[in-house]
Design brief:
The chain is mainly β and 191 residues long. It is built from 1 helix and 13 strands; from the N terminus they run βββββββββββββα. The radius of gyration is 20 Å and the shape is elongated.
């Protein structure tokens, strides 16, 4: 089966084995939709989501999703002019207000993005994505690995599209020798 709801960037198609809908009322202003078994979500903006269970709070007047919770074997892919981004975890919670996404995993979460020539990989215990600022925060045993090196710390902030990275807590960074040789002047200004 399948159904269509309206996301922030147009219609969203959902396919699953079982669909349950509860209208608003009974103490709630939101309608609740549950998608169960082999859930596949595709949006007009290029976002794809697969999981085993998806629950959504929907504004019954506009049919717009206000909050979504995806559970079990969550894989999210965003492919657009900015490139391809993939994230994996056990649970994803999306809140439309603030365009915030939280990804959680019993054994951590993972994300990768990049181009055909350069792939970046990040992991941590959890991930928070702020869609209003296009900023990713990895929390707990966070690590970012790219062809330029490796950065690890308790917390990492990454803007995947402009390459800005920062870290806090006890952190360490490791660059390949060629990166240092090509970018850092030697004593006396020689390279």
């Amino acid at each position: 089966g399948g159904s269509e709801v309206v996301g922030t960037n147009g219609p969203v198609e959902v396919r699953c084995q079982e669909f349950v809908y509860r209208a608003s009322g009974e103490g709630t202003d939101w309608a609740e939709a549950a998608y169960l078994g082999g859930v596949e979500v595709r949006s007009a903006s290029g976002m794809q989501l697969t999981c085993q269970e998806l629950r959504a709070s929907v504004d019954p007047d506009s049919n717009r999703v206000q909050r979504m919770v995806a559970d079990r074997s969550v894989v999210m892919v965003q492919e657009d002019a900015k490139g391809r981004r993939t994230a994996r975890g056990d649970q994803a919670v999306y809140t439309a207000v603030g365009e915030e996404l939280r990804l959680l995993g019993e054994h951590g979460v993972a994300m990768e993005w990049g181009s055909a020539t350069e792939t970046n990989r990040a992991r941590g215990r959890s991930l928070r994505y702020d869609g209003t600022r296009d900023r990713l925060e990895l929390i707990g045993e966070a690590e970012l690995v790219s062809v330029r090196g490796r950065l690890a710390g308790e917390r990492l902030w990454v803007n995947p599209m402009n390459g800005l990275v920062s870290a806090s807590g006890m952190w360490k960074i490791r660059f390949p020798a060629r990166e240092l040789r090509d970018r850092v002047p030697l004593e006396g200004g020689r390279r």
